[in-house]
Amino acid sequence: MLTAQEALERLKAGNARFVKGEATQQKLLTHQERAEMASEQNPFAIVLGCSDSRVPAEMVFDQGLGDLFVIRVAGNIVAPSQVGSVEFAAERYDCAVVVVLGHSHCGAIQATIDTLKHPDQAPSSNLMSIVNRVRPSVEILMQTELKDDLKKLSAHAVRSNVFASVNQLRHGSAVLESLIEKGKMIVVGAEYSLESGEVIFFDF
Ligand SMILES: [Zn+2]
């Protein structure tokens, strides 16, 4: 089992390879290699990321089959099923790190901004359940001068939405809170740049 620091270093090293175009994990596995993994898994980190087709966690961190326990949902939001998934993996596989991975140009953030600007054109109730979880992070920014600069607003909203998800995972679950208090797990926020391929880890 890796420590939180070791797990983070492994993710950062993988992303550095991905950025340089030197990814090593995209090889095809043999039938035997795949079959050997069937009986158990041992992921070293949990990633809660966005469903965006351009941000597959395994690729951007250059990790292989069985390395990451990944939860993807539009806008990397935290609803009960996401908390449950993180609890499951944290307890069962002793993962010491949970990364909430947002990204630039996130469609879920844009959909939230659009809905707030044009409340008369609300999306379906299902999509609204995602928008409503992103909304507090965007709403507060729309009360500042950022509201007049869509590009800046979207960039800030991505970060504040990651922060909100990190916060919810840290404090919205007794199971996770207890693991964090015992020093067995950390939850960190990060942002992937669609342009550079780089993942920046936040200090919050
Ligand atoms: Zn997104």
TrEMBL record:
<keyword id="KW-0479">Metal-binding</keyword>
<feature type="binding site">
    <location>
        <position position="103"/>
    </location>
    <ligand>
        <name>Zn(2+)</name>
    </ligand>
</feature>
<comment type="similarity">
    <text>Belongs to the beta-class carbonic anhydrase family.</text>
</comment>
<keyword id="KW-0456">Lyase</keyword>
<dbReference type="GO" id="GO:0004089">
    <property type="term" value="F:carbonate dehydratase activity"/>
</dbReference>
<dbReference type="InterPro" id="IPR001765">
    <property type="entry name" value="Carbonic_anhydrase"/>
</dbReference>
<dbReference type="GO" id="GO:0015976">
    <property type="term" value="P:carbon utilization"/>
</dbReference>
<dbReference type="GO" id="GO:0008270">
    <property type="term" value="F:zinc ion binding"/>
</dbReference>
<feature type="binding site">
    <location>
        <position position="52"/>
    </location>
    <ligand>
        <name>Zn(2+)</name>
    </ligand>
</feature>
<protein>
    <recommendedName>
        <fullName>carbonic anhydrase</fullName>
        <ecNumber>4.2.1.1</ecNumber>
    </recommendedName>
</protein>
<feature type="binding site">
    <location>
        <position position="50"/>
    </location>
    <ligand>
        <name>Zn(2+)</name>
    </ligand>
</feature>
<keyword id="KW-0862">Zinc</keyword>
<dbReference type="InterPro" id="IPR036874">
    <property type="entry name" value="Carbonic_anhydrase_sf"/>
</dbReference>
<dbReference type="Pfam" id="PF00484">
    <property type="entry name" value="Pro_CA"/>
</dbReference>
<feature type="binding site">
    <location>
        <position position="106"/>
    </location>
    <ligand>
        <name>Zn(2+)</name>
    </ligand>
</feature>
<dbReference type="InterPro" id="IPR015892">
    <property type="entry name" value="Carbonic_anhydrase_CS"/>
</dbReference>
